[in-house]
Amino acid sequence: MKKFISLIIIMLLLTSLFGIREFACMFTLINPSATDVAFGLGSGTANIWNTNPLSVWSNPAKLGYHKNLAFGYSNDSWFENVVWIDFDMYHQSSYISYGWNGIGVLLPAPSAKSHWGTFMDYGEQTMLDEYGNVISTFESYDACSKFAVGVNVMEFVSNFISNESFHSLQYYGDLSIGYNYDNIISELVPEGSGGLPPGVKGAGETNSSGVGYIGRISPFNKINAAGKFYRLDLTAGIYYLNPERTKISYINESQPDPMPYGTRSAFSCKFSIDSSLILEMENDNLRCIIDNLFSIYYSQDNVQYGEKDESNPSVWGEGIEIAFFDIFYIRKGQYVDRRGEMVGDTDGIGINLNYKDILQFQYNKTKFPGGEFQNKQ
User: Fold this and answer.
1) 53, 105, 227, 240: which has the fewest C-beta neighbours closer than 10 Å?
2) Which has the closest alpha carbon to 119: 177, 184, 180?
C-alpha cells in the first residue's frame, strides 16, 4: 500500500489551525488580508474602510465601497516554526477590484503555478511503499478563484435621482449587498494513484458561494456634512458562507465531503477628525496626500462554522486601529477560538500612500496566534 505521510501531517495541521474536523478544503477559511487579520483572524466583515481587494474575502458587500482600480497580493508562510516539519507551506492570493458609482467587482489575478486567485502550496510530497521506500515525489496544492460583485444601493440609486433630499440621506447611512462565486480545486495526490491510507484524499473540484450585507449609519448628519471637521460612522455586516452547503468529491472517494459553511457577523465604529481642522492643511497639494488628521476604529466579529453546539462554539475576534493622517496605522486585537486552541493577541501595522484616489500604495503586516502545534513548540 502506498503511503503519503506528509499529507496526513498537512491535514492535522489545518485541523489544528481551525479546530474543525468535518470539513474539507479548510484553506478557504484563511483570510488573505493582513488588515482584517489584525482584528482577529476571521474578521473584517463590516470594515468598509479597508478597500484592498484581499479584504473582499471577508464580505463581498464591501465592494460597494470600492473606488477605482486596485490590486492586492499576499504571500504568507504557514507552520514555519514547527521544527518537525521538513517542507514549506505557502498561502498566496492575488486579486483585482474595480469600483465605480457604488458598483464594485472582484476578479482573480495570476497567483502561482498557472493558477489565478488563491493558491495553497503544500510543497513537495513523498510517496512511500509499504516497506518505507520512496516511490516518487509530487507537488500537492489547493486553489480557489473567487469572483465577486457588490452594490452600494444608496450610491447607485443616487446616480438616477436628482432629488436633493434623497442625496442628503447618504450622510445618514447606506446599504451594500454582495455575492461571490468560488471555483475550488484540491490536488492533494496524483490522479489515479489509488490505494490511499484512511483519511488521505485524492484530487477534487467543486464550487461554493456566499452572500453578504453591510449597513452604515452616521447618526449626526450635521457633523458628517461636507466642510465639518468630525465624522462618526457605525457599521454592521453579516456574511453567509456557502449557504448551499456544497460538497467536494475526491478521485478515491465514493462519498463527497462537505465544504465549510457558516455565518460571519460584525459591528464596527469609526471616529475621525478631518485634516482641515489645522489651518495649514488648507493647502490643496498637501490635502491630496493627507486626508484625515486622526481616526480611531473599533471592530468586533463573530464567526460560526457549522452547527453551533457545546462541542463547536463560535469564534470571535476584536480589535482597535489608530490612524494618523490616513498614512500610518497601528492595530491591536484579540482572537479567540476555543475549539482550535487558538487564543491570543494580534498585532499589525500599515502604511497607506494615496494621491487624489488615483494612485495608492498600501503595505500591511500582521502577527497572529498559531495553532496548537505551534503553541506547543
Assistant:
1) 227
2) 184
Give the residue from 102, 207, 216, 96 showing the smallest Cα distance to 150. 102
- Backbone CA torsion sign across 32, 36, 40, 42: negative
Q: Tell me the HSE value of 111 on the side-chain side, using a 13 A CA sphere.
A: 29
Q: Give how far the C-alpha of residue 80 lies from the chain's centroid of Cα atoms, to the nearest Å.
A: 21
87 neighbors 124 (Cβ within 8 angstroms): yes
Assess contact for 35 and 52: CB atoms under 8 A.
yes
Which structural domain, as residue segments, surrounds residue 19? 5-375
- Cα dist. 76→86, 90, 363 in Å? 17, 6, 14
**Residues pairing with 350 in the sheet:** 329, 364
Residue 243 to residues 62, 212, 225, 260, 306, Cα–Cα distance (Å): 19, 11, 39, 10, 11
- Cell readout for 86 is 521538513
Position 321 scores a pLDDT of 92
Average pLDDT per consecutive 10 residues, the chain (377 residues; last block may be shorter)? 53 61 82 85 84 92 92 81 63 94 95 90 73 73 95 88 73 92 85 56 85 92 60 93 90 78 93 64 51 82 83 83 88 82 83 71 78 43
Grid cell digits, residue 209: 458561494
pLDDT given at position 84: 52
Pairing relation of β-strands 110-112 and 328-337? unpaired
Distance CA 142, CA 91 (A): 9
Number of domains in the chain: 1
Going from the C-alpha of 344 to that of each of 29, 46, 152, 311, 316, the distances in angstroms are 18, 22, 35, 20, 11
The burial of 346, by beta-carbon neighbours within 10 Å (0-12 exposed, 13-18 middle, 19 or more buried), is given as: buried
What pLDDT sits at residue 124?
Answer: 74
Residue 68: its pLDDT value, please? 86
Residues 309/22, Cβ–Cβ less than 8 Å: no
